[in-house]
Amino acid sequence: MTSSERAQDARLRKIYKKTLAQKTEEIALQDGRCAICRRPFPPLKDKNGKTFTPYQDHDHKCCPRRLKVFCGKCNRGFLCYQCNKWVVGVFERMNVPLDRFVAYMKKWTK
């Protein structure tokens, strides 16, 4: 492991209670892409040659963000920044039922 990988592994262990190897394996199970929008994480690239950084998503009801250390049981998938902040983040903060959002989008998307 390089010094950068060791630092990332230590950070993951401290904050998310997982190893770098576990993160790599979980991202591989998602085909190396965001679990929601399917944007590619390195080493994959999209049609414009871009890659997106994977962010660990977790349930903030279990471990609030202000704690900055999480139990590890509330970890979900890996998301790109946009999906983590704007899709999941908005739904969690606004407490909007997902089925209501899906019904609304289906009504207007034909």
Question: How would you describe this structure to a colleague?
Answer:
The chain is mainly α. The chain is 45% helix and 8% strand. The protein is built from 4 helices and 2 strands. Strands 1-2 form a two-stranded antiparallel sheet. It is flat. The model has no long low-confidence stretch (mean pLDDT 86).
Radius of gyration: 16 Å
What is the N-to-C order of secondary-structure elements (H for helix, E for strand)? HHEEHH
Q: How far apart, in Å, are the first and last alpha carbons?
A: 50 Å
Low-confidence stretches: none
Tell me the strand order in the biggest sheet.
1-2
Give the percentage of residues in beta strands: 5-15%
Write down how many β-strands occur, each being a DSSP E stretch of 2 or more residues: 2
The secondary structure category is mainly alpha
Mean pLDDT across all amino acids? 86
Residue share in helix: 40-55%
Work out the helix count.
4
Largest sheet: 2 strands, antiparallel
Shape: flat
Summarize the structure.
By secondary structure, the protein is mainly alpha-helical. Helix content is 45%, strand content 8%.
Feature tags:
110 residues, mainly alpha, 45% helix, 4 helices
